[in-house]
Amino acid sequence: MTRGTDLQPLVDELVEACAWGEEARARALVSRLGTQPRKAKTLLEAMLKAPDAQVRQAAAFALGELGGTASVRLLEQQLALEETRDDHDGESVVEAITRSLGRIKESGARATLLRRLERMSAGKPGLGDVNTMARALWRGRHPDLVPSVRHALEQLVPLSMNSLRGVLLLLEKSPEELRAWVLAPSVPVEHKTEVLTVLDEELPDELLPLIPSFVSVASTLADTAVKQQGGATYYCERLLLLLLSHQERIFSTLPTEARSDTHAVARKLVASVAPNCAGRATLLLRAIGQPEDAALIEAHRPADPMLARSFDEAAQALRTLRH
Length: 323
Fold this sequence. Notes:
- The protein is mainly α.
- It contains 19 helices and no strands.
- α5 (about 70-85) packs antiparallel against α6 (about 90-105).
């Protein structure tokens, strides 16, 4: 990659931000990069040729933020190159490109993702690759996706927790149908978890009314999730993550009864044998709990120092609500 340009310090910072997963910081840097479009294009093309996979990932992220047909073209070309590498570095850049294509609204990005999906369906992709694709397709959701997603599901070797199935359900069903589907006892909890995983990527306003139904299901699973790790636990973990990821939007619209049910579920799950579940429940109580929840959190304080710190901070924060 060419050195010595006036944008190089910004590019170095962008690579660092992407490597640490600091998306807000990375977006701010891309915004600054976009003020000099010609130089930015030259730099990003050079970054895509870099031997360092982290540099190529940062370039893919930037192109996804900048958008446009030129970005789609560069990402599609790079995607083909990365797929031929057949190594860990190539796979990591493919994931970054897939995510970036999902953020671009142009139809060309959606077409590129579908061509990638078709290639994946002809092979034996890992669950992580499939789920990354599912989240990208959901971001660029469009009715035209339905036939391709359905065909891919028919071709792929059955995978547990296949989020593509979640995408298809969300695309095909109305909000009213989805509510009935979520509450149906006959629907496997794993399939409901797939939908939660997809919604965590992006939660449209029209689907916010589904949250009480998901919470209702969690109420029936919480006792099991506390005692053992399995499908019930993973469902609750994904629901907690969804609630935490979109808490401002969700809790500003959540009916009083559903908010009370959510609080009750979180109180139960603080005692879960699954560390992720207990930790997320504690974070949720910190956000929506009451001072009396502090004692409960302290009673289930884990031995692990890192996790224990989050329990201590949550309990302290809740006690300050008295003042």
